[in-house]
Amino acid sequence: MTLHEYVQTLRKHIFVIAALVVLGGVLGYVYAKTQVPIYRSTSSVLLSAERGESTSELVQGSSYVQSLVQTYALMSESNLVLAPVIGELDLDMTVSQLSKAVSADSPLNTAIIEVSVENSDPALAQKINASVANSLAAAVAEVSPQDAQQRPTVRLTSINSATLPMFPISPNTALLAAIGAALGLAVGVAFAFARRALSTRIVDAEDLAQITPTPLLGEIAEAKRGTSLVATLRTNQHGIVAESFRNLSANVRFANIDTPLRSLVVTSAQPDEGKSSVAIGLALEQAEAGQRVLLIDADLRHPSIAGYTQLEGGVGLTSVLVGGESLASAIQPWGSDNLDVLTAGTVPPNPNQLLASSSMKSLLATASERYDLVIVDSAPVISVTDALWLGNMADGVLLVVRERFTRHRHLAKAATAVESSHSTLVGVVLNRVKRGDRDSKYYTSEKESRESSKRFLAARAGR
């Protein structure tokens, strides 16, 4: 994946990621609030030699004390020190349990022992700390060497009394909330990339490029909910849908520089991908650009052009193919002075035979002579072979792909089928692109539209 693809993936899942970050932070905060607060009381004691008659003895005593300070610090967690504390305060715990709440340490090169006691009750933490300090002093006096007068050679003196903690040391609410948010972010990012990796549907232009080298000729923006693509195109000529069709129309005109397209079959891999709407929209834009256009509904299994255009559907393509009507009498003007429509006519029992016939080939040849562009709406490629027969008769095939609907394998199968039939697959159209996608907004930029055409021409030249 490129950097752009990484950014696109994260951007498309930004709301999910943000929600997981907030959820993680909230869960971390709630978890912190459910924990029992722990308070820490601290005190300090000084270990010193009992006496020294001379400077030399004092120095020796100081060195002697420093050699013992770590030993006495460890002794603060022993049974000798803690058992009297439990008895004095009548604590409901064992020595082992109490030792986990008591810790002692000595700063480097000092004879000071710092004692810490943690407990959920701040007052009890202070009492235990004070008792530990006293018990440690008594234990030091008991175990330390004695002089000639049977007195301990070292003593323990309190220099900082046990403190009464005012604020808990744990849980750290801010830290736990931050950790929760960070975990939410990690889960969100992992979800975004996992969904992209496991996705079986086309979600953007990058997906198309990975499946087929066929150039992307356009991205048709999705119409607003409750309105059809054709209605949106006809009522709002300055909207994003119209701009996307204008971009597609321009790219189709450049699809074959040496020999301009005179006939184009519009199809899709599966039903419900919007091929008929794309065919109508393309026909309208080509007609608006000044070309004489004929739109033919050759989807004889499920014809829809008559319904979209509200034209008479009883006489149409089948009427011409079986010899009942001439092409001139069957076509109907619609939408523009430059646009004629040939509806499907009566649905026949043998559509494949009619579309593969010499009559159909002759009709396309005649129409191509009379019109600048003939656009043929055909049945989906995977369902039936109608589009493959028509593709051999026409100058090219345009494959419509619906965003977040068409599956990877269906697109690959459709593209392979068209190319295997020796038809010319001129390009792919990504249909119903979500309006929130940044890629769909480039239609409003004339500069980016020109760049899209340049990329398309470069792709065609490299094939």
Describe the structure in your own words.
By secondary structure, the protein is of the alpha/beta class. It has 3 domains: 58 residues, no CATH class; 122 residues, EIF_2_alpha (Alpha-Beta Plaits, 2-Layer Sandwich); 260 residues, 3-Layer(aba) Sandwich (Rossmann fold). Helix content is 50%, strand content 17%. It is built from 19 helices and 12 strands. The strands form 2 sheets. An 8-stranded mixed β-sheet has the order 5-12-11-6-10-7-9-8, with helices on both faces. Strands 2-3-1-4 form a 4-stranded antiparallel β-sheet. A hairpin with a 6-residue loop joins strand 2 and strand 3. Helix 1 crosses helix 7, helix 2 runs antiparallel to helix 7 and helix 10 crosses helix 11. About 3% of the residues have low confidence.
Globally, the shape reads rod-shaped
* CATH T-level fold name of the largest domain: Rossmann fold
The gyration radius over C-alpha positions equals 42 Å
Largest sheet: 8 strands, mixed
Annotate the secondary structure layout.
Blueprint (H helix, E strand, L loop, with lengths): L2 H10 L1 H21 L4 E11 L5 H21 L3 H11 L5 H7 E4 L6 E8 L2 H22 L10 E7 L12 H26 L6 H7 L4 E6 L7 H7 L4 H14 L9 E6 L6 H14 L4 E5 L7 H5 L7 H5 L5 H4 L1 E3 L1 E7 L8 H5 L2 H13 L2 E5 L8 H8 L2 E7 L5 H13 L4 E9 L12 H17 L1
Parallel strand pairs: 5-12, 6-10, 6-11, 7-9, 7-10, 11-12
Antiparallel strand pairs: 1-3, 1-4, 2-3, 8-9
Helix pairs in contact: 1-7, 2-7, 4-5, 4-6, 10-11
